[in-house]
Write a structure and sequence with these properties.
Blueprint (H helix, E strand, L loop, with lengths): L1 H18 L9 H13 L4 E3 L5 E5 L11 E6 L21 E4 L2 E4 L6 H14 L9 E6 L7 H5 L9 E4 L7 E6 L1 E9 L3 E3 L4 E7 L4 E2 L11 H15 L4 E9 L3 E2 L3 E6 L3 H16 L10 E7 L4 E3 L1 H12 L4 E5 L7 E13 L2 E10 L2 H17 L3 E8 L9 H14 L4 E5 L4 H8 L4 E4 L4 E2 L7 E3 H16 L2
Parallel strand pairs: 3-6, 3-7, 7-23, 8-22
Antiparallel strand pairs: 1-2, 2-6, 4-5, 5-25, 9-20, 9-21, 10-17, 11-15, 11-16, 12-14, 13-15, 13-19, 18-19, 19-20, 24-25
Helix pairs in contact: 1-3, 1-11, 5-7, 9-11
Bound molecules: zinc ion.
Length: 478
């Protein structure tokens, strides 16, 4: 096990080094500087662009000069999520890494194994970890988590490889061979205010697992914004004097909201407390295990002078509660694979207006178009507006793939098992790269990372070492 004894510390060292560099989406300057310095120090040719992408080339090892080159690719940015109450500035602070039972995590924040594992693996390769490999083109893209701006903007005429390994996968037993497309949509509603003298309460929903809005959408986890919306819709039926003051929950289209809170005013505060304590018990009878921390908290809040009027209150609560959400269709050919879904990822409302953000995903372009039309319809009914800020492209499964069979063989050689070939219900940069270079042969792989995009994100260290060994094997074929 050469890998574990010798190369594994190298992988971890690079992972640690990049964990000290702030690299939230849109803030990858530190990574560009680090990677440029890394390439210069090793005399490797490199290229950077205005999107903060970095391409570094590693010449073929001896005997591999004629072997077809391979593009390796991963993103430098990470999702910045922390639990409430955790002191961490993602613009300045290094992550605080710790190891528990063979799993790496960051204290109170996302770990950035998505996609720091790709960055660390490419750095180890560029630093000489592989003795037998063709020319490698290592592409470090930016801003994947906030619109894939790097992968969309990159100049692919620079790439001459026609085989590609994207390393944004999160299950070491899986070779991804396709991904879904998606669309981010925004609904804005105007609201009318009125004066109020009623007492106020604040309702908080928390303790939920959340997760990735594509990969975790079918796991039955509760969306905190939807739940709070449904609670308010229920109270709205019982209390004619209920008025909404503010609503907050989630903030990213690609994460299932874990927390939400609303301020309302109405006369019967004790009634609300009673109803919610009963509801909390009832909800606990039917939760998936990850959501067992669910709580509903009701506290008295100071009175305010202005609240939303009843009609606005109703429209805003409808927006949170009633627009279809979650899984709409499963894949007909591949078992347990979601085909079409929608996630209400965030909502914010006060007496100046309301806004909500959605992410629709599907293997089929026409289902994304339909979802867009449906959201426009709801916005219009609610007397608001809807616009779509960005769309990412899918990558369809190919029956034949040279790089897939190479990686499959390497997987067998290292583990003695067969890798599963799957597609994913999430956007990958592969979709854009495949559109830019249609004859590119693509796979997406990676070590086992759990709870992506949440502060519980964790990387299995054995899997990380094994993944790297499989990668080294894959590069050896020619
Ligand atoms: Zn990623």
């Amino acid at each position: 096990m050469l890998c574990k004894n010798f190369l594994y510390p190298m992988l971890l060292r690079y992972f640690e080094e990049i964990s000290a560099i702030p690299r939230g989406s849109g803030h990858e300057e530190g990574m560009v500087a680090y990677l440029s310095r890394f390439a210069k120090e090793r005399n490797l040719s490199f290229y950077t662009d205005e999107f903060k992408n970095v391409l570094i080339r590693l010449p073929a090892s001896e005997g591999y000069e004629c072997a077809p080159s391979i593009l390796l690719q991963g993103h430098t940015d990470m999702v910045c999520e922390k639990n409430r109450g955790v002191e961490h500035n993602f613009l300045t602070d290094p992550l605080k890494l710790c190891v528990e039972d063979g799993w790496l995590r960051a204290k109170g924040t996302t770990l950035g194994a998505d996609d720091g594992v790709a960055v660390a693996a490419m750095l180890a390769l560029l630093d000489g970890a592989s003795e037998a490999h063709p020319e490698l083109e290592c592409l470090f893209t930016s801003c994947e988590e906030a619109g894939m701006e790097g992968a969309v903007g990159f100049d692919y005429s620079l790439i001459h490889s026609r085989m590609m390994v994207n390393m944004d996968g999160c299950d070491d037993g899986v070779i991804l061979a396709g991904c879904a497309g998606g669309l981010r949509s925004h609904i804005n509603l105007p609201v009318e205010e009125e004066a109020s003298e009623e007492p106020c309460v604040e309702i908080r929903v928390g303790g939920l697992a959340g997760g990735h809005s594509g990969e975790d959408i079918h796991r039955g986890r509760i969306n905190a914004v939807k739940l709070l919306g449904e609670i308010l819709a229920h109270l709205l039926v019982l209390y004619k004097d209920l008025r909404l003051i503010s609503f907050w929950g989630g903030d990213k289209d690609n994460a299932i909201p874990r927390e939400a809170e609303a301020k309302i005013c109405l006369a019967d505060r004790d009634g609300v407390k009673r109803i919610l304590s009963e509801l909390e018990k009832k909800l606990h009878e039917n939760l998936v295990p990850e959501d067992e921390g669910l709580f509903l908290a009701v506290t008295d809040a100071p009175s305010v002078e202005s609240v939303m009027d009843r009609a606005s209150t109703e429209r805003v609560i409808f927006l949170a509660a009633k627009i279809p959400n979650g899984v709409f269709a499963m894949n007909e050919d591949l078992k347990d694979q979601v085909s079409t879904s929608r996630n209400l990822g965030g909502m914010f409302a006060d007496i100046t207006g309301a806004k909500a953000i959605f992410l629709s995903r599907s293997d089929y372009d026409e289902n994304i178009d339909y979802s867009a039309g449906e959201l426009e319809f709801y916005a219009s009914v609610l007397r608001g507006s809807c616009h779509h800020s960005y769309r990412f492209l899918g990558w369809n499964y190919a029956k034949e793939s040279e790089i897939r069979s190479r990686y499959g063989e390497a997987y067998r050689a290292v583990t003695g098992n067969e890798a599963r070939v799957e597609t994913i219900h999430a956007g990958l940069e592969c979709g854009h790269i495949k559109h830019a270079i249609p004859d590119m042969d693509v796979i997406s792989v990676g070590p086992t990372v759990l709870n992506l995009h949440s502060p519980e994100e964790t990387l299995n260290l054995d899997s990380f070492a094994r993944f790297f060994e499989i990668l080294l094997e894959t590069l050896k074929y020619h």
